[in-house]
Design brief:
single chain; about 625 residues; alpha/beta; Glutamine Phosphoribosylpyrophosphate, subunit 1, domain 1; Rossmann fold; 3 domains; 6-stranded antiparallel sheet; about 25% strand; globular; binds 5-amino-5-deoxy-1-O-phosphono-D-mannitol
Length: about 625
């Protein structure tokens, strides 16, 4: 939700800011803007509603001055429609010398605004943000000390914010404050950067520092200082970003999503790397910070949102089957506000690609306060969730830019399989050799994903033929059920088609009433060798909807003759251990949604109304 970039240094600031915003655009794309202090010491600001390209075109036609300091913002609207006026930066003070950008929500803005209106301040936007610009400008006018003015105002703000500020009369410094919203510093030589995440500056430097909760950054070209809101100096260790700028570029693909779907063999392979020995033994060094407490876990609660919650649902089947620990999966925002029962033997596993999803952060803070252990499964180095959890298990999917999550999903499921096997090793429900066998199956997944990717042309063609569908239903049982939910979510967010995922067993309890002539139904068929004969039950479910006029597309295991007899629209995936099938069966559904979206002429990477990281509750 909103991307933020700041720069002080010798390079062309406008280029640095626009380059950073390009990489952050996935965080919000309804308007964008920049402010710089040009060579004559004047603050210049340009902002435009619409995608970043609108701002870029505008600046190309009417360039801003050469500058060595600036801030930039890409917006996902919360307060006020996406208009030029509501776009950031916002200017403060009678002479509009202060420029400010913000990510988050200032919850007490109405009260602060009344105070400013009474003092005669004129507002030019409907945002919550503008109050902060006017308050800081007023404090600065009183004292001439920008840092203390900034600190005083930040202390008055409630809610979530990352705020960056610069002032025409202080042309060497950008100030930043962080509470509940992400902020990372990039350390260069004779130049320094600020960003909502490392993507903002990774093409310039890989040295980074994560800013802590309630901290202020004083950024100059030759030094970076950090302090808490009370003004005490603080330090944090530097870390190296472990991917480079090319990992976050399309690399010749038609969209980031297409590239990220194709990245999945590597994402899953990198997530497995170093964690599964060649004999199949799984050991997660990353869980060491949990110490012996891991042996006394009597319950696991997984908290997540959206696609990460569906990955957790898949994981629940694996953890319960292999480690025999009861698992529940909860949407973070529901968990946080329902007074859940937690003990010191509860392990809360927070799953998040970004590690910045506010709902999940609030859920984990709540769980920690209640005395539970927290493990985060996260894809972003140095993310808030990773830093606040007792232990972190990173997925190594690399940067995921498309708003619709794909490779992060399969990497999350992979990580949860690893967690399940690690925990199973500490229990006695399964023999060592049984668990090692599953570990060896895991190692085959990257090659099997590549096989699936090579055979997707028929599903692409099918997707295009459903371009005018009004509603699509998805059915699955067991681990296929969360995949049905994920397939439906992908179609909603990318193609704006109403879609629902159902547990196939639930069909006759209501949803079958939706079936009428021509209704598309996508069915995830379990392995033919499924010992619990769920396969036969799902084939019966297919028959039931076919009998009522549905058109069925089946995602089934290679060699599944029974399915071929009931529908000719089958997408085959290689046979795998039945618990691991979701990693393969989800891929045709990702491609189905992407292709259908493209066929409708929609923006695959940036669907309407969405943002990649939901950093407000
Ligand atoms: O960064 P997170 O994994 O915490 O994000 C959670 C959801 O917002 C995210 O998975 C969302 O549902 C995706 N747009 C789905 O494609």
């Amino acid at each position: 939700m909103c991307g933020i970039v700041g720069y002080v240094g010798p390079k062309s600031t406008v280029e640095v800011l626009l380059g950073g915003l390009k990489r952050l655009e996935y965080r919000g794309y309804d308007s964008a803007g920049v402010s710089v202090i040009n060579g004559s010491g004047t603050l210049e600001t340009r902002k435009r509603s619409g995608k970043l390209s609108v701002l870029v075109d505008d600046i190309e036609q009417n360039p801003l001055g050469v500058a060595h300091i600036g801030i930039g913002h890409t917006r996902w609207a919360t307060h006020g429609a996406p208009t030029d006026g509501n776009a950031h930066p916002h200017l403060g003070g009678a002479h509009k010398k202060l420029s400010l950008i913000h990510n988050g929500i200032i919850e007490n803005f109405a009260e602060l605004k009344s105070e400013l209106l009474e003092a005669g301040v004129t507002f030019t936007s409907e945002t919550d943000t503008e109050v902060a610009a006017h308050l800081i400008a007023a404090e600065y006018d009183k004292t001439g000390d920008l840092i203390s003015a900034f600190r005083r105002v930040v202390l008055r703000l409630h809610g979530a914010f990352t705020i960056l500020v610069m002032h025409e009369d202080e042309p060497d410094v950008v100030l930043a404050a962080r509470r509940n919203s992400p902020l990372v510093v990039g350390l260069g030589v004779g130049e320094n950067f600020l960003g909502s995440d490392v993507a903002a500056f990774v093409e310039h430097t890989k040295r980074a520092i994560s800013v802590g909760q309630d901290e202020i950054v004083i950024l100059r070209s030759d030094r970076v200082e950090l302090e808490d809101f009370a003004g005490n100096k603080v330090t944090h260790p530097e870390f190296q970003v472990d991917w480079d700028a090319s990992a976050a570029s399309k690399g010749g693909w038609s969209s980031f999503m297409a590239k990220e779907i194709a990245d999945q063999p590597q994402a899953v392979g990198d997530t497995l790397m170093g964690r599964v020995a060649s004999d199949g033994t799984v050991h997660l060094q990353e869980l060491a910070p949990l110490g012996n407490a891991i042996h006394s876990i009597d319950r696991i609660i997984m908290v997540a949102c959206g696609t990460a919650a569906y990955a957790s649902e898949v994981g629940k089947y694996a953890i319960e089957a292999w480690a025999r620990i009861p698992v529940s999966v909860e949407l973070s925002h529901e968990f946080r506000y329902r007074d859940p029962i937690l003990t010191s033997n509860t392990l809360v596993v927070a799953v998040s690609q970004s590690g910045e999803t506010m709902d999940t952060l609030m859920a984990t803070r709540y769980a920690k306060e209640a005395g539970a252990m927290v493990l985060s499964i996260c894809n972003t180095q140095g993310a808030t969730l990773a830093r606040e959890a007792d232990a972190v298990l990173y997925t190594h999917a690399g940067p995921e830019v498309a708003v619709a999550s794909t490779k992060a999903f399969t990497a999350q499921i992979t990580s949860i399989y690893l967690l399940a096997l690690h925990l199973a090793n500490t229990r006695s429900a399964h023999s060592k050799s049984e668990l090692q066998e599953i570990g060896r199956e895991l190692l085959k997944l990257p090659a099997q994903i590549s096989e699936v990717l090579a055979g997707l042309d028929p599903i692409r063609e099918l997707a295009r033929s459903y371009k005018d569908a009004k509603t699509v239903l998805f059915l699955g049982r067991n681990v296929g059920f969360p995949i049905a939910l994920e397939g439906a979510l992908k179609l909603k967010e990318l193609a704006y088609i109403h879609s629902e995922g159902f547990a196939a067993g639930e069909l006759k309890h209501g949803p079958i009433a939706l079936i009428e002539e021509g209704q598309p139904v996508i069915v995830i068929v379990p392995s033919v060798n499924d010992p619990d004969s769920l396969h036969a039950k799902v084939v019966s479910n297919i028959q039931e909807v076919l009998a009522r006029g549905a058109k069925v597309i089946a995602i089934a295991e290679e060699g599944d003759k029974a399915v071929a007899q009931v529908t000719d629209q089958v997408c085959y995936v290689p046979a795998v251990h039945r618990m691991l099938a979701p990693i393969l069966t989800v891929i045709p559904l990702q491609v189905f949604a992407m292709e259908l979206s493209a066929a409708k002429g929609l923006d695959v990477d940036q669907p309407r109304n969405l943002a990649k990281s939901v950093t407000v509750e």
